[in-house]
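SUBJECT: A protein chain and its fold
Encoding: whole-number codes for local backbone shapes
RECORD BEGINS BELOW THIS LINE
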Amino acid sequence: MTDIVTAGMIVIGDEILSGRTKDKNIGHLADMLTAVGIDLKEVRVVSDDREAIADAVNALRSRNTYVFTTGGIGPTHDDITADSIAFALGLPCGYDDKAYRLLEAHYAKRGIEFTEARKRMARMPEGATHIDNPISIAPGFHIANVYVMAGVPSIFQAMLDNVIPTLQTGTKLSTRSVPSPLPEGTIGGPLGEVQKAHPDTIIGSYPQYSDKGFWTEIIIRSRSQEALAAATEAVENMLASMQPQEPSVN
């Protein structure tokens, strides 16, 4: 099997946890990573608290190829992500010269005061490299295997477009779908046995409802086409064996 590349995501902000802001970044990141063969394994939502952010960063970065964070790199007092990432990595955090000059020139061009609050957006852990922000200029940053980006969806997506081409990618998961007229409670045991017999696949079942009725969609995923074909055949055979047989007319 090809080496597997994995990622974790940390969504930062009290406004997410309170429900005032609805997250739109998790699904976008999952779509983008899946498209290039990176498995998003875990997502955490944490408050604007240094220890909570640092604990999440260190937990996820220790067991994933990459960690992505969104939120908390703006100009307000509760935007503490840069300091928290530095704390997690044991690094000093201060004004990045390149980011400072970039923001200073940006606000001067617009005739807007470069306040102490706006200067906060130039703070990064020592040794960080920029993630360009083509929308509002203030950069994100990359340090170790951690990628720190804005929480505003349009800015996050623009930053991510710059990050994706730089990442190590893995073999994409291929997918097969097998519809089952039987409910999960009926197929759960036999489907589990199929999964055990085909460890190079990921098999899930998902109840579906429509005006045409109820059924269960069985999804088989694998990076190996041979393993995928074998598991799909096993699922189809399992379902066939569980269907009631038509009575003989003879």
The mean pLDDT is 92. The longest strand covers residues 213-222.
